[in-house]
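In practice, a research group might receive sequence data for several interacting partners and want a quick structural hypothesis before committing to experiments. The following worked case mirrors that situation: the sequences arrive first, and a predicted assembly follows.
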Amino acid sequence: MSVQIDHLLHESRRFPPSPEFAASSVATESLYTDAAADRLGFWAEQARDLLHWHKPFTRTLDWTNPPFAKWFDDGELNVAYNCLDRHVLAGNGDRIALHWEGEPGDSRAISYAQLTTEVKRAANVLLGLGVRAGDRVAIYLPMIPEAVVAMLAVARIGAVHSVIFGGFSAESLRSRIDDAEAVVVITADGGYRKGRATPLKPAVDAALASGDSSVHTVLVVERTGGDVEWNERDKWWHEELAGVSDEHEAQPFPAENPLFILYTSGTTGKPKGILHTSGGYLTQVAFTHKNVFDLKPEKDVFWCTADVGWITGHSYVVYGPLANGATQVLYEGTPDTPHPGRWWEIIEKYKVSILYTAPTAIRTFMKIGRQEPQKFDLTSLRLLGSVGEPINPEAWMWYREVIGNQLTPVVDTWWQTETGAIMISALPGLTEAKPGAAQVAIPGVSIDVIGEDGEHVGHGNGGLLVVTEPWPSMLRGIWGDPERYIETYWEKFQDAPNGPLYFAGDGARLDRDGDIWLLGRVDDVMNVSGHRLSTAEIESSLVAHGVVAEAAVVGAHDDTTGQAVVAFVIIKYSQTDAASHADISAVLRAHVTLQIGAIARPREIHIVTELPKTRSGKIMRRLLRDVAEGREIGDTTTLADTSIMQIISASMR
Ligand code: 6R9
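A structural hypothesis for the assembly, expressed as tokens:
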């Protein structure tokens, strides 16, 4: 059977950039033409322009042993120097690097000079503990400035960080520490979430309780002041930093020196330790942060709401913004604490000009209603970004209209932990935007949509998303498992005529103009009467109806059609007592039939109050498929809230 994914939903709204925005755009058309004329030359120029090299490189790409790439490999640089010292040396030491906002309302403004000093101290502490280039350091912290300091201090001494999201359990922490053989863990007594001080250190204590791990020291940041158990290996972060010099000269390391490992769970199996290195990674995150977000570092206040425990936090909270000398907001807590307008209050307070967040957050705000953001002055915003899942056209429209005052461009950015940096996105001053489409590969990145046979699908068709040429911020492998790296990403299209293709695992289609629309994970595609239907399109159709805030669609076994569409929807607060569930279901089934066609009409629509999501906010359709097919529910360990599945199952009886 072919992989052709039938595309059914039509979206014809268009939003060109305003003349004012276009006139002062950071990105220019020449980026596309230069990259098309000489792709490697283009990346070499970006690497030289955007970064400081202690030793200039002479080789751009070594692809003689695919899929193992080396970029700029005879060059040497220091990643932390690029994010800190050079801005201070250029006279920008007083510029604010971080406007940090704690959940309880405490705040700190940290300049580039101050951040540099903190990182130098932390680097001296790590060196004093015997940490050397290549050693691994695990970081398990809330969203506090010390998380950024810790990452940069590890990078500064050429060591490798492995940040583990603070919501992960002791068991997940232990398996990641073991896999990376980390020697030091940096944690905190706790952090603030949903109005409470939540302890973190007990999970580290439990993870290391058996005493046979590679970890010799645990550094503990004091955040909440809560009680902590104390072990021989523990040291207070503030005491250690106070006891060392604030002088530290950054040493150069080879461009291919490992920078970090970040674990990604995928759908099945043991988490993969995605490995990223230094020069190529920093080049592409700096390039995309500057051009996709139209960054004017002397004026803008950038806010990426992702936690540093995810790739979005690595690339667009830490490395991209700091490499570019940007001023940004870092917020510790949840969006609805102590009130549902907290994010909008923060935007007003710091005059945030660029906001980068995820569709799951946007849809949650849609569910609550526009009255919350409308209580605050959001006129400082001039650009909005989205990442993490396909953004439904209606969510895109709401984002632009309600948050962006009907004015701001919205960029939908497609990328992955594995790709390290943004790969597909509009450039806001150049591209005519289409709600719901990621649209075009960034300059210097080569993307295609192909069939199972490896052939380009042609405009108007759907298939599999692949990257056809190596890119600077690509993963360099899976930590300790080169075989799995090849099998997972490169084996499927290894015999392509111009070398192996990177298979991303996502479905996509090209519209008539050749623009790219993401259709969801290939594992989630449904097959109804021989038609391959994308989750994203049917979900977008449901979200386009005025009563629906969020929707998840799965394919469930059906005797007649092979699979049938089963939908789970969340109704907007303002609509919850408008009609009975049966009425709403009937209306929505008719709506999808009208918008897409009878083939996509859901067999069942279940009205629920929550959807199962991963801790980074992605809908876990696999679990909904279990419910829809009446099976025992599978592994729920990656769910943000494990009680959700009981609530959903109970509401269906
Ligand atoms: C950055 C990040 C990667 C997966 C990816 C895809 C989905 C991310 C998207 C998107 C549609 C977008 N995804 N951005 N789908 N449109 N703009 O999220 O990394 O956590 O590794 O997830 O997320 O399915 O394959 P990661």
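Before designing any experiment, note the following. The chain has a mean pLDDT of 95. Residues 264, 310-312, 387-390, 412-417, 438, 504-506, 518, 521, 616 surround 6R9 (CB under 6 Å).
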